[in-house]
Amino acid sequence: MMASSPAVTRCRATCAPVHRSRGSMRAKTTARRAIQAASTEAAQATAEKEFNAYIARVNAAIEQALDKSVPMMYPERLHESMRYSLLAGGKRIRPALCLAACELVGGEMETAMPTACALEMIHTMSLIHDDLPSMDNDDFRRGKPTNHKVYGEEMAILAGDALLSHAFEYIGRETKGVSADKVVRVIVDVAKCVGSEGLVGGQVVDIDSEGAGPENVTIETLQYIHAHKTGALLEVSVTAGAILGGASEEQIGKLERYAQSIGLAFQVVDDILDCTQSSEQLGKTAGKDEAVGKATYPSLVGLEESRRIAADLIAKAKGELAGFDAEKVKPLIGLADYIANREN
Prior knowledge:
Keywords: Isoprene biosynthesis, Magnesium, Metal-binding, Transferase. Its cofactor is Mg(2+). By secondary structure, the protein is mainly α. The protein has one domain (46-341): Farnesyl Diphosphate Synthase. Helices cover 75% and strands 1% of the residues.
């Protein structure tokens, strides 16, 4: 048997520990990553649990306030129609955003609750009118027959009209402990978000674009539709809460940009869900956008790119929350994540 050469002996003496050292380093790195992943997962689970508890508490208060905001009175059928859609459940994202923004800047939930209810009244009006035969002609909303299917088209139109006017009355009459100039500012901002520069304007461009086909609608036009038809009300939900809570102009600006991003993300996700979920999962008719030739993010840029855009918008929104109190900002972070991950 030949003896090992000095060079081989040196290599065995020096290289073997290096191999063992590298293997040990890889094992330590893998273990460290596993610990970090487990820690991140645990933190996410804790944050989700805290957010769910917050939403359960806030939504209970919102439901109670909404029930009181539109009492049954004469004419009974009108108020029954108003209450039917207003109290039909739903995610209550807009009032939750309003209350969370108010509390974030140091305000009390009770201060913003009338405006939170008013925003849900306006949102409900938009759904009632959107479902009409002359608009989207939908039979189901939130898993129930739409308002005009239950009360007739005439009553549905009037119920929506009544909710819209009642919303502004409710803000002006029920908001307490806030200066008149702030209340007026909120009313002006909410009115603007509903009219030709907001929700209604977005709906008009949406109607004009219907049937044109994705190839004839630009991404800029689609962004305009989403930012106005859906995003405007989400945006004012946040800024109104901030104004009522006593936010500085700098804080209002940050929250406005946060809301603009989540507002567009909300509709991008809505477009994705319309072509990936069933009617049972959505609680409304699925696939209607494609059926009527309506441009959507998936039809213009594809499903995966739409998901990337939504994720980027949520990340951008969260970036605007830097500098706020780490504990008080959690509800707005949770609402952004909810918008990104919702399934209906």
